[in-house]
Design brief:
By secondary structure, this protein is mainly β. The protein has 2 domains: 68 residues, Single Sheet (TSP-1 type 1 repeat); 122 residues, no CATH class. The protein has a 6-stranded mixed β-barrel with strand order 5-8-9-6-7-10. Strands 1-3 form a two-stranded antiparallel ribbon. Strands 2-4 form a two-stranded antiparallel sheet. It is elongated, with a radius of gyration of 24 Å. It starts with 8 loop residues before the first helix and ends with a strand.
Length: 209
């Protein structure tokens, strides 16, 4: 008799002998990713999303479709009314210094290369979430001195500095930081000094986002 393309037969083990030829697997097809949205909430560390949709559903036992939504950490420094957020509300959002090489190339290509600066901090507390994060999170250890670079696009007009760099803070004031993409990897540090000429060591080098 005719062979029907009902993929349930694979589960019940009663497929036609020529099922694979008559009913080849049709893979899932998804659209390209949309552009990233804005941050979910202003004036706090949160996330942005991008989405895609299913163009063709999988059939005949093909692999299921991949995730249709993706999130990334972000922080927005301006309120919905276009007012600048209070610095005390926002921790410094940092990522690994290795990310800066590609960022500098893109800035140069776009004509946006701006001279930046670095800030040295001493880590006072480091959350336990850093132990289970990415490899660079493990470089954040209590008592260590770290070097964080401020460069484009985190440094751009009208701001003469990167948010969270501790400019204007008192000498022993505890400032908050958070690793991008891992809200459990966060802690406090004290600002030591600003370096107008950056020479951050590769091991303890980070970037403001």
């Amino acid at each position: 008799g005719p062979c029907y393309c009902d993929q349930e037969c694979a589960r019940t083990l009663d497929c036609c002998h020529d099922y694979a030829q008559t009913c080849p697997a049709v893979p899932c097809v998804v659209s390209p990713w949309s552009a990233w949205s804005g941050c979910a909430e202003p004036c706090k560390t949160t996330y942005r999303i991008r989405i895609r949709h299913i163009v063709q559903e999988p059939r005949n036992g093909a692999e299921p479709c991949p995730a249709l939504e993706e999130r990334a950490g972000c922080v927005e420094y301006w309120s919905r009314q276009a007012a600048e957020c209070q610095q005390s509300l926002i921790p410094a959002l940092i990522t690994t210094g290795g990310f800066g090489k590609g960022r500098k190339k893109r800035a140069a290509a776009d004509g946006n290369e701006t001279a930046g600066y670095c800030v040295q901090f001493q880590l006072v507390s480091v959350g336990p979430g850093c132990l289970r994060g990415q490899r660079w999170h493990s470089r954040l250890r209590e008592g260590h001195s770290v070097c964080v670079e401020c460069q484009h696009p985190a440094l751009r007009a009208p701001r003469p500095h990167c948010r969270g760099d501790g400019a204007g803070s008192r000498g022993n004031q505890l400032l908050h930081w958070q690793a991008v993409g891992n809200p459990r990897c966060q802690g406090t540090w004290r600002r030591i000094r600003q370096l107008d000429t950056c020479s951050c060591p590769s091991v303890h080098s980070f970037l403001f986002i």
